[in-house]
Amino acid sequence: MSETATTRAGSTGRAIPLPARRLPLVPILLFGLLALLPVAVSLGLPSHWLTLVTRAMIFAIAALSLDLILGVGGLVSFGHAAFVGIGAYATGIMITEGLAETLLILPVVLAVCGVFALVTGYVSLRTRGVTFIMITLAFGQMVYFLAQALSAYGGDDGLTLYQRSTVLGFNAFGNRTGFFYVVLGVLLACYLLVRVIVASRFGRVLRAARENGTRVSVTGFQVSQVRLAAYVISGLIAGLSGFLLANQTEFVSPAFMSWPRSGELIFMVVLGGVGSLHGAIIGALAFLFAEDILAGWTEHWKVIFGPMIVLFVLFTRGGLVGLMRKLGIGRDD
C-alpha cells in the first residue's frame, strides 16, 4: 500500500519527503467508461450490453465485498454467495408480501445479512485454512437448503417477482437506463467505502494480520475482532448486491446462494487480481462478458470456460490488473 503521509523521519531524525500518492487512473477510467455505456448504446452499441453490464456490476459489488476479506484479510470464504442469496430472498419475500418500498427493504436486508455474518463469522473465524473454507461452505449450503425448503416462496423452483422495489412510492427501478445508473452509483459508493476502509488503520491491521496474526496480536490489537468486523462489512455489501440482483432479474432462486456461485465470485476476484479493489470489478466484468460470448457459441460453453480460467490463473500472475501493470497500464490501488 502506498504511503499517505508526506514525510517520514529518517535515521538522522530529519524528515524525508515521501512520493506523492498516485492518482488511481484505472478506476477513474473504468467508472468513466461505465457511465458512458448508455450513451454508446443509444449510438448503436448492442442494447443487451446495458443489461449485461448492469448484471456484471451487481456481481462486481459482491466480488468487491469478497476481496475485502480475501484479498486484504486473507480469508478464503467458499460460502460468500449466501449473503447475496439472503439479500435477494429478503427483497423477494418483502415484495411478495406487498412491502416494496426500498426504505423498508434495505434495513431488513442489511439487518438479516449482518446478523448472519456476525453469527457465522464468530464461529468460522475461530478456525483457519481449509477448516475455515469448509465451515463457510457448510453455512452457505445450510442457507441454500433452507431456501429450497421455503415452499411458500417457490421452494426449489424459485420465486417470481411481479414488481420491482419502489423509492418513496415511485417506480425508480423500472427504467433500464435509470436502474443502470443506480447500480453504477452503488458500485462506486461501495468501491470508495472499501477503499477508505483498506487505507484506514483498521485496514492496515487487517492486512498485517493476514501476514502474521500472532505478531499483530502481540502489539495489542484484537485480531479476531478486526477480522469479524471485516467479515460483517463484507456480508453487508454482498447483501446489498442481492437486493439489486433481485430487482434486476425479478426472480430469486436458491441457485443464487449455491456453492458454485461462491466459486464464481472467487474466480472473479482472482481473474481481476486478488487484493486490487478495481481488479474485482474488472474481473466481474470480464467473467460475465466471457460467459455471455461463449454461451452464444455453444450450449457446452462451461467446458471451454473452465479450462480458460484455470490456464489464465496459472500463467498470469496478479490477474488482469497484474497483466495491465506489466504492460505499463495502471498502478496499485
TrEMBL record:
Q: What is this protein called?
A: Branched-chain amino acid ABC transporter permease
Localization recorded for this chain is: Cell membrane
Record organism: Bosea massiliensis
Which topology term describes how it sits in the membrane?
Multi-pass membrane protein
Membrane-traversing stretches: 25-45, 57-83, 103-125, 132-153, 178-198, 228-246, 266-289, 301-324
- Which InterPro entries does this chain map to? ABC_transp_permease, LivM-like
Q: Which UniProt keywords apply?
A: Cell membrane, Membrane, Transmembrane, Transmembrane helix
